[in-house]
Amino acid sequence: MVPPLSENAFHETYPSVSFHNRKQTTVYVAKLSSVRIKDQLQPSVGNPASNMNPTDTGMARLTLSDADAQVRRWLADEVHKLGCNLQIDQMGNMFAQQTGHLKSSVPMIAMGSHLDTQPRGGRYDGILGVMASLEVLRTMKENGYQTAFDVGLVNWTNEEGARFPKSMCSSGVWAGATPIQQAWDLRDIHDSNVTLRSELERHGFLGDIPCSATEGVALGAHFELHIEQGPILVESGRSLGVVQGAQGYRWLTFTVQGRDAHTGTTPLSARQDPLLAASKMIAASNAVAKRHGALASTGVIKVPSNASTNTVASEVTFTLDIRHPRDRVVQTVQEECLESFAAIAREDGKGVKFDWTLDTDSAATQFDSGCIEAVRMAAEALVGKEKCVDMTSGAGHDSVYTSRWCPTTMIFVPCRDGVSHHPEEYCRQEDCALGTQALLEAVIHYDRFISDRK
Amino acid sequence: MVPPLSENAFHETYPSVSFHNRKQTTVYVAKLSSVRIKDQLQPSVGNPASNMNPTDTGMARLTLSDADAQVRRWLADEVHKLGCNLQIDQMGNMFAQQTGHLKSSVPMIAMGSHLDTQPRGGRYDGILGVMASLEVLRTMKENGYQTAFDVGLVNWTNEEGARFPKSMCSSGVWAGATPIQQAWDLRDIHDSNVTLRSELERHGFLGDIPCSATEGVALGAHFELHIEQGPILVESGRSLGVVQGAQGYRWLTFTVQGRDAHTGTTPLSARQDPLLAASKMIAASNAVAKRHGALASTGVIKVPSNASTNTVASEVTFTLDIRHPRDRVVQTVQEECLESFAAIAREDGKGVKFDWTLDTDSAATQFDSGCIEAVRMAAEALVGKEKCVDMTSGAGHDSVYTSRWCPTTMIFVPCRDGVSHHPEEYCRQEDCALGTQALLEAVIHYDRFISDRK
């Protein structure tokens, strides 16, 4: 278990990270030395996963669990203390709004992410983005800095889809991609009597406001700070990722059918061995992806429960996850995989049959050039050009949905070994603070861009 | 469900199979037209598996179940009717003995197999061998034919190992390969309160005679008629397999360890993907086996239960079953697999680690040349040389254990599509009768060989 940092210990960690003597925007926002991101490092809110080493930082805070309700109430208190207007929509999304000095009716520049985690998740994925947003609002308030337009934060409900199985669930409803009834009807994977809606009601987070970009709380922009969840920043020694968009991806499930047969009595030439064929298919998909600079991954493979050492399996299913920043490449990789799978199915023994289903098809996303520019300016000023890198998000995020309706981008910070969705997920305190400072400054830049434009 | 054949219908099936006008030994044993193998085709003894088509012949008769006790009592009645002496040993193995005219103390020439089945098994695997043995004894009796030496049948307990998990269990005890206490202590896989010994006692089949080739019922020879359980006879259009021995085989389990990682954010070059490596290993083991004319099969592969489409698995386990009639080749295939697995583990990304265990190591068995010669003479006389083929048993059988202590061989008959351990397992009535006739004649030949020798 991580010992909760004392206020002093935390401050001692940061003096070396002195963001406050820089010119540019920081003349307006004196410093971030009062960072309270420690709240996010503080495991008292939510149930941290057990069996942790000192730098393990696991968290188990499933969507709309009691622990999630607890952190939501805490967040509501914190934004109220800052004088924000808090709106909660019909999916429980929390929108906290700080009025800008123009008192414009233009929708707010939002910073958002999510507070829910995987059952054995970390304390950075999503959480860092919300806590950093809160810290930005606090820092502005403490320094008497007022943006021109309204700014605020969003806590999106059920990003993980771990308890109610739909990821980026409520930003999807907000963006009109998912009907609200379908989202409300999602059932707890461990207790089918419980729905997402019944838990919203139980905790008092079923708001009145429509969950909709057009009829509910509109956003003028969306900035999301997030751990990279991959090894690129760590391995390249960069500090900040300027995110250009999100990869397209497709999830397919293949079923390979053969015939069960005795392994001792059936010559290789007489077999229809679906596991041998599936193995060759998995290896082939990897070769195809390499050829195109894409990703192809099989995470799940299953044989029937009565499979045994001395029986050729009757059937095998496996998943295939194909990703690339360009949809055209995703399509090409899929086509070439299917061609090579068909050849493999014919090739051995008496041949096997295979079917496939397309389970998810998520198009590639290009983020907003204005938002990206604001992040780039902030990031390069903070750490220098050589410590920044343009990146494409490999994972899905709420920002993918917000980008359909408002200028959006993301900022990535390194996480140890690229590990995420795991209790060992870890982002150094310096990187949390650096990302938060970049978020603060990017929002200020963006606020100025649109002020200048209007 | 197969409608039970009426006595008449059964006899009508067989006239075309007229074995009774042949010369050689059959002058002594007029005919097999009174075949009562129908008992074995008759599903009233034991619980046939459900959902059967007309030619499906499923059987669920787990070792020492009530159904197994019922068929054992029936078998005891039948051999008593023939005037046999029935001995039951401490593993419930049933030895029925018909005295030869020499009244020699030489141990009997036995015909044996087993009456237990897999939970969703067929009605031929094992059962055919015991029913054919009974039919041989009946046919000799009806025709007044007496062998020189004693002949008899054996019903071996728990050959399948499906309920009490050890296959060829009681022939293994008899051969001294398995301590009797270990076999007695085997627990019902569905009810750990029940042991093999407690079920022997409950049904009255715990005999007094030691289960031992040396201190219990000794055997002078062991002939076993069995369905091939593979496609070689069917596909080559042969009728009878003259079995030379049993393949050596080794069962290994491999554990490949990598690191779980997000499929969207982890470049291929940064992965330790155990499922990709395992897939390549399975394909490689097949290539190695092909090169050596051996068999290598993976029946089981497992990823952790929390595996998901968008996560590289942390660990994969898979089984490998290597077989060849020569132990040296089994060893070579294993060595070459291990070499290629090590190369695969190093090859990709950051490399994975793998461990392996040797779970079973069964040496190749060479059957007795005298027994083989007796079967060959019988088989070639019955169907002609071109319809016979020398074979190696791919599966394990009780005969593998008896061959350690007495001259042994087996006779194979075709089964449809090579399917076994499945309700669709099917051996045509003509083939059942042909195999039984071959068994009868082989035993008579063998009895003469040893009479001539002694």
TrEMBL record, chains A, B:
The keyword Amino-acid biosynthesis does not apply. Keywords: Hydrolase. InterPro entries: Amidase_Cbmase, Bact_exopeptidase_dim_dom, Peptidase_M20. Pfam families: Peptidase_M20 (PF01546). It comes from the Eukaryota. GO terms for molecular function: hydrolase activity, acting on carbon-nitrogen (but not peptide) bonds, in linear amidines. The keyword Hydrolase applies. Gene3D superfamilies: 3.30.70.360, Zn peptidases. CDD domains: M20_bAS. Belongs to the peptidase M20A family. This is Beta-alanine synthase. It comes from Aspergillus nanangensis. The lineage of its organism: Eukaryota, Fungi, Dikarya, Ascomycota, Pezizomycotina.
